[in-house]
Amino acid sequence: MRKYMLESAVFLCGAAVMIYELIGSRMLAPYLGTSLIVWTSLIGVILASLSIGYWYGGRIADRKAEAVIFSRIIFFAGMLIGLTTYLYYDLLFMISHAFSNLMAKSFISTVLLFVAPSILLGMISPYAVKLKVKELSDMGRGVGNLYALSTAGSIGGTFLAGFVLIPHLGTNAVLKVLSVLLAVCSLFCRPRRQMKEGVALFLVFLAIHAGAGFLSRKYAIQDWILDTDTQYSRIQISDDLYNLRWVRLMKINGQLSSGMFRSDPDLLIPYTKYYRLAAHFNPGLKKALMIGGAGYVYPMDFLDRNGNASLDVVEIDPKVTELAQRYFGLKSYDRMRIYHEDGRAFINRTASKYDAIFNDAYSSLFSIPYQLTTIEAIRNMYSLLNDNGVVMVNIISSLEGQGSKFLRAEYKTFMNVFPQVYLFPVEISGNPNIVQNIMLVALKSGKQAVITSSNREYNDYLSHLWQQKVTADLPILTDDFAPVDYYIMGAIQPS
Description:
The protein has 495 residues and is an alpha/beta fold. It has 17 helices and 11 strands.
């Protein structure tokens, strides 16, 4: 084997493990979300697979340690990683529809997609040790050096994937590049006398890639105007027909985050219209804050309807703002300031005061940012409000039953801070167990709110007031204890 080729292979394969794991989160996100449950399955399955690889790689190395076998292990790892590029769309689409339990969906998906490549990647380090270490006197140093190189590769792969590859190349391109690099690496790890077999395998590799690309249906992405990765999310934008009218939609990690009519200024997504009630609860709005910009559809509506008011928008992902400008008509407003940072970090540090705070960061059931749900965050919101201020939060939940756990916990948490908290379910139904958008309204003033209006639009929204008692059987959410991912499971899957 060429000088330093063994060390280079170990470094590359160490990087491949972490790149593959981070890319895995983007593969799963459009179908399963990015919740703690999904990450737990992904990390747990890959670690278990690596452990199997370490064990089995050591066993076969003890039986027969040859450079050509080492080369084949790397080659087939690259081959399997490449095949996932063409398989994961259809596979995840089928699994997400075949199972209702999020834990089951996450575990089955990660097992089918990541076990085989991760086992092969795990086999590389122990096999390399056997090839490298010839004398017992050198074993400690040899093992230490190779595992240090593997770990250094993993560190480098982590930063490279998170800071460069994913936001600039995207999921599919990174998978293909990683696959090709491993295949090329396997060629250089071969003895020269066996290079013909290596070249033949590489040609087979290219043929399989070409065939898989041709046969893959990819129906999960065929209608996207844009399917891209950012440092934070996977974003998909499409045009569709809704009641015979063209609409534009933005999905973030597989969940609808924004929508607009192509030829109508009115709001498309029903729950966003409920934010207009801020002007009912606090007439004469002058300054408001919105956490979560996405397509900036409601922020533009707010500025258009409140001609003298200003709006601060906190959107964690600058790429989302760029896409809103390109695809959703977001323009520059003198009365709107945009901050690209985490919503909790912003409310922790800002000294601004607001008449209304709109929280639309819970727009996906699959990835609720728990740090915005806790009593510490809610106290910060309370302190940022002027005397008659209002907080409005979009929550996806049922009103009662198994699917209402997060709503019950969040309602109780708000009640511990605000004197008045109201719920307005968007759908009127005789079944309180259906999962739907519910607008939570919290008022800083202790003066009893009026839940009627001479404004016909406002009155329609106010008529949805939930007048039944909300069960307060769950502990308040805190920075220390906020099991949001487990509470929302009842809403994701049927009981």
